[in-house]
């Protein structure tokens, strides 16, 4: 019996689609955090890479140095989104056995 008959392929594809949907739900529920400025600014992202929260300690707000606050926010956001991408890659590799699928969770 050929395991690659059309019915088997359809079943395998449907199972993979279900696994990917579960993975997306799992990633959406997970959170990664990053901070900058010794914890003055914290950014939280979902495992899908959506920014979900920014926390800024009041002492980080200096009206005379808005640029520093902007830099801290940017650094925390970039780190949080980088962690989300790493999580996506790791979880996807577990599911696909390391096979890279273009467009699965981004470019």
Descriptive account of the structure:
This protein is an alpha+beta fold and 107 residues long. Helix content is 51%, strand content 17%. α1 packs antiparallel against α2 (66-96). The chain is rod-shaped and about 70 Å long.
Structural class: alpha+beta
Number of strands: 3
Low-pLDDT runs of 5+ residues are none
State Rg.
Answer: 20 Å
- Number of helical elements: 2
H-E order:
HEEEH
Please write the CATH class name. Answer: Alpha Beta
Characterize the main sheet. Answer: 3 strands, antiparallel
Q: Shape, please?
A: rod-shaped
Please give the share of residues in helix.
40-55%
CATH architecture: 2-Layer Sandwich
Q: Quick check: average pLDDT?
A: 88
Oligomer: single chain
- Estimate nothing, just give the exact number of structural domains: 1
Tell me the name of the CATH homologous superfamily. Nucleoid-associated protein YbaB-like domain
Beta-strand fraction estimate: 15-25%
Widest beta sheet: strand line-up: 1-2-3
Stated plainly, the CATH topology is called: Ybab, Chain: A
Salient structural properties:
107 residues, alpha+beta, 51% helix, 3-stranded antiparallel beta sheet, Ybab, Chain: A, 2 helices, single chain
List the helices and strands and how they pair.
Layout: H1 6-29, E1 31-36, E2 41-46, E3 51-56, H2 66-96
Antiparallel strand pairs: 1-2, 2-3
Helix pairs in contact: 1-2
